[in-house]
Amino acid sequence: MDKSPEEKPKKRKRSSSSSSGSDSEKEKRKRKKQYKKDKRKIKKKMKKLKKKLKRKEKEVIKDAEEQLEVIEDNKSDQEDKTEVRSMAPMTKEEWEKRQSVVRRVLDESTGRYRLIKGDGEVIEEIVSRDRHKEINKQATKGDGNYFQSFFKK
Fold first, then answer.
1. Average pLDDT by consecutive 10-residue portion of the chain (153 residues)?
2. Helix (H, G, I), strand (E, B) or coil at 72
3. Max CA separation in the chain (angstroms)
4. What is the pTM of this model?
């Protein structure tokens, strides 16, 4: 059974470049495996986050719907009350409450701001002398521009 050296099966000899090549192949496979593993982890995390986001969205939508229902209920209650009261005359308290509101409205044609009380009463504003002159200058300029706009057409 002794085999002569010639009869022994020949083993491949690795060259130095191929051994480093196989090492680099191992490293490549190892990196690829790690990359896939990391990718799966990230995918799993993303899936969890998406689920969490969907749950949050559902909660927010549910809360918004509940609030909308409450608002609609309140609105319908108020409409019922106003429908009953709409034919009745205004009480003194309601009229005073409405008239106590003062708002500043811009008159677009002249560029002036006017104080409007309640349903439309125009009231004067008390200002200093300097502010009064400034308002008059601005108003005169606005009046002139308004007047000139008719000739430009």
1. 57 55 83 92 90 83 78 69 69 89 83 84 88 87 83 74
2. helix
3. 129
4. 0.35
